[in-house]
Design a protein that fits this description.
Blueprint (H helix, E strand, L loop, with lengths): L9 H18 L8 E6 L4 E7 L4 E8 L7
Antiparallel strand pairs: 1-2, 2-3
Length: 71
């Protein structure tokens, strides 16, 4: 069996890009402020966005799946 890298579906990539842009806007971050981004989706409909720096989380925020900020 040939092993290939897992490629995200276009809709998933667009969803992740949207929440990354939204979180950067809310937090006022620029690309130089962080190294990577991770996004966690909760089955209850919440999305958590974490911005990572050198070995630590630089900033984080959370949203509902429809894009509204989570309380």
């Amino acid at each position: 069996m040939k092993k290939e890298a897992i490629k995200p579906l276009p809709v998933v990539k667009a969803y992740a890009d949207y929440f990354t842009r939204r979180a950067k806007s809310v937090l006022g971050l620029k690309r130089a402020d962080y190294k990577s981004v991770s996004i966690d989706y909760n089955s209850r409909g919440s999305v958590y966005v974490y911005f990572h720096g050198k070995g630590k989380v630089v900033a984080s925020t959370s949203f509902w799946a429809n894009g509204e900020e989570l309380g």
